[in-house]
Amino acid sequence: TIHSPADLAINGAEPAFAEPLHVGRPNIGDRAQFLRLVGEMFDRRWLSNNGPLVVEFEKRVADYLGVKHCIAMCNGTIALEIAIRALGMTGEVIIPSYTFVATAHALHWQGITPVFADIDPATHNLDPAAVQRMITSRTTGIIGVHLWGRPAPVYALQAIADEHGLQLLFDAAHAFGCSHGGKMIGSFGRAEVLSFHATKFFNTFEGGAVVTNDDELAQTARLMRNFGFAGFDNVIHPGTNGKMVEVCAAMGLTNLDYIDNVIGANRQNHEAYGRALAGISGVRLLGFDDSQCNNYQYVVMEVAGGSECRDAILTTLHAENVLARKYFWPGCHRMKPYRDLFPNAGVMLKCTEMVADRLIVLPTGTTLPEYAPELIAEVIRYTT
Ligand code: T4K
C-alpha cells in the first residue's frame, strides 16, 4: 500500500507490482477449445485460403454485428488498405490525426494524401465542422475512427459525405462489440474495418476484417484479398494477399465464445478505476455511454495539467511496473512522414494537440488483478 510519496518506487521503494502490467494484454478464451480446433485443422490439412474455420468465423462475426458481409483479413491495416481501394478513394482523404498511425499509413502507402481534421475534445472523435473545412476539389473520402470504441459522429459525417459525393469508411479497429443508437458498429458508412490484433479486446493473434452491407463492395474486397482470383487460374481483378489463416480463425472462434467474460472484466475494471480516481484532483476518466454496448477496452485518463504533469505520472507509473501508454501522442501530423508532408498542420489541430498532451491509457483486461485499479490510483494520488 501507498500512504505517502516515500512509498513510491521513484523514491526508492519496492515497485507496487512485481510483474509488469501491460496495456493491451491479450484476452485468451478456452485453451482446450482452441487446441481442439487446431487439431482438427491439422487433420484436414487445410491451413489457409478460405478454409472452413475462416468461413465459420466470418459468419459468426457478421451475425454478431448484424451486418451482411464479413471479409476476414490477416490484419486491420491490410483490411483498411483493401477497403480504401475497393471504395475507389484517391487524391485526398480526410481522417483524424488523433488515431493509431495505421489509419494514415493505409492511405499514404497507396499514394493517397491523408488530410488531418481536428477532433472534438469532449469525445476525442472527428469534429464534423473541422471535416467540412478540410474538403477540397481533390477530396474523395472520409475515414472516421471510432476512437476508444466510442462511436464517431456517424450521421453528421454521412451527411457531409452525401452532400459532397464522398466515400465514407469507418476505422472500427477499437469498436468491435460496441453499438450506436441500438445498432452495432459495423454497418455505418459504406464499410467498416475491424482489427483483431493481440492487443485488442477480442483477438485472432493478428487479424482484421472489412464488414459491409454492400454486396458489390464485399465481392471486390474478397477478390482483392486473394490476388483477384475468381476460381482456378482466373484472375479478374488486381489484388494482394490479405487472407486470414485458419489458426487465427480458430483463435477467433474460441474468443467469440469468451467475449462476454472480457466485456464483464473490462467493465468491472473501468468502474473500479472510476471509483478509485474519483477523489483525485487534476485527473479525469473518460466515461462511456452505458445505454450503448461498449467493450470498455480503453481506460482513458485525462491529466488537466498537460504534458509535463502527464509525463510525470507516466514515469511514476512505469517505475511501479504499470506500463501505461500515451496513445496516440503526438498525433499522426507530428510523426515524421506526415510532419514533413504538412509542416504547419498543428495550426488546424489545436484540440488534437491538447488532448494528445493530456492522455494516459491504463491497463485493463481479464488478467488485471482485482486490487490493481485502487493501487494505481494511489500511485497517481501521490504524484499529482
Ligand atoms: N486503426 C486503429 C485505430 C488502430 O488502433 C489499429 C491498431 C489499426 C488501425 C491497425 O490494426 P492492425 O493492423 O494492428 O490489426 C498496438 C497494436 O499493435 C495495434 O494493433 C493497435 N492498433 C495499437 C493501438 O496498439 P503498439 O505499437 O502500441 O504495440 P506494442 O507492441 O507496444 O504492444 C502494446 C502493449 O501490449 C504492450 O504493453 C505489450 C502488450 N502486449 C502486446 C502483444 C503483441 C502483450 O502483452 N502481449 C502481446 O502479445 O500497437
UniProtKB/TrEMBL annotation:
- Could you list this entry's UniProt keywords, alphabetically sorted: Aminotransferase, Pyridoxal phosphate, Transferase
Q: Which GO terms describe its molecular function?
A: pyridoxal phosphate binding; transaminase activity
Signal sequence, renumbered to the chain: none
Record's keyword annotation contains rRNA processing:
no
The regions listed as transmembrane in this protein's record are none
Coiled-coil boundaries: none
List N6-(pyridoxal phosphate)lysine occurrences by residue. Answer: 200
Q: Give the positions the UniProt entry annotates as the active site.
A: 200 (proton acceptor)
- InterPro entries xrefs: DegT/StrS_aminotransferase (IPR000653), PyrdxlP-dep_Trfase (IPR015424), PyrdxlP-dep_Trfase_major (IPR015421), PyrdxlP-dep_Trfase_small (IPR015422)
Matching entries from Gene3D superfamilies are given as: Aspartate Aminotransferase, domain 1, Type I PLP-dependent aspartate aminotransferase-like (Major domain)
What GO biological process terms does the UniProt entry carry, in alphabetical order? polysaccharide biosynthetic process
Top-rank taxon, per record: Bacteria
Record's family?
Answer: Belongs to the DegT/DnrJ/EryC1 family.
Q: Which PANTHER family match?
A: PROTEIN RV3402C (PTHR30244:SF9), TRANSAMINASE (PTHR30244)
UniProt protein name: Aminotransferase class I/II-fold pyridoxal phosphate-dependent enzyme
User: What's the source species for this entry?
Assistant: Thermomonas fusca
